[in-house]
Design brief:
Keywords: Metal-binding, Zinc, Zinc-finger
Number of helices: 10
Protein name: SWIM-type domain-containing protein
GO molecular function, one term: zinc ion binding
Helix content: 40-55%
Number of domains: 2
Pfam families: SWIM (PF04434)
Largest sheet: 4 strands, antiparallel
InterPro entries: Znf_SWIM
């Protein structure tokens, strides 16, 4: 029985500390007596003591664990380790599988995307941005909503951090920032915790590094000249348009 989620879902929707601890459990074969049953997976995870764990096959963060966190309705490393086992089928994790990017960085690599690569990246950005959606639910789903924003920004962070530096990719990122800004200003996204705003600021910093590495990248910033954004993130980029 294949779960409805995959490793990427687990990786991008889980906080770094919990994910890394779960990976450690999985790689050290601490997930034992794994079996599929009804609508989920049962296993015994060897931690400070053996913990019986259940994880739903549709939502990896729904289930039960005998540990302290699990008994207080908090997603724990034991549940995530079982979810990883279900998604990977017990296979070995590669280095890319374990790599979690939660902060935007500039790749520092000069170059352009091919037409096909550019099209694929645009699709990935659109898909990731869907997690950054309007909030119109009751208060009980607030934390779930914030998790969705985090997942969207984590997915986008990895995409952005892997891009080569060029005027082409600078324009791609400026367009992405304007779309996110529109979501914040006019589409009902509730960014009270500053998750999306933080991602935007990190991307702006990466674009400043783009312009240092390749001054032609600053041409892409002309698109935001004269625009007023939610919190003025465009200002440091606009200043670079006139730089010698």
């Amino acid at each position: 029985m294949q779960p409805k989620y995959d490793l990427d879902k687990i990786k991008f929707a889980t906080d770094r500390s919990t994910f890394e601890k779960a990976v450690n459990l999985y790689e050290k074969r601490k997930v034992t007596k794994f079996k599929e049953e009804l609508h989920g997976y049962f296993a015994t995870v060897l931690g400070t003591k053996p913990y019986k764990v259940y994880v739903d096959n549709r939502h990896y963060d729904q289930g039960d664990c005998e540990c302290y966190l699990g008994q207080n309705d908090t997603l724990c490393k034991h549940m995530v380790a079982v979810a990883i086992h279900s998604a990977m089928g017990g296979k070995k994790l590669g280095e890319e599988d374990k790599r979690l990017v939660s902060k935007v960085t500039c790749s520092g690599r000069l170059g352009e995307l091919s037409k096909g690569e550019l099209s694929e990246v645009k699709k990935l950005i659109t898909s990731a941005a869907r997690y950054i959606k309007p909030y119109n639910g009751p208060s009980r789903v607030w934390f779930s909503y914030q998790n969705s924003l985090s997942e969207g920004c984590n997915r986008l962070s990895q995409i952005v951090s892997e891009l080569p530096v060029s005027e082409q990719t600078a324009k791609l990122l400026v367009d992405m920032l304007l779309r996110l800004d529109d979501k914040l200003c006019r589409s009902g996204v509730d960014d009270s915790d500053g998750i999306v705003g933080g991602f935007i600021e990190e991307t702006v910093q990466a674009l400043k590094e783009y312009a240092e590495l390749n001054p032609a990248c600053a041409k892409a910033f002309s698109e935001i000249k004269g625009k007023e954004t939610c919190f003025g993130w465009e200002e440091p980029l606009v200043k670079l348009i006139h730089s010698p």
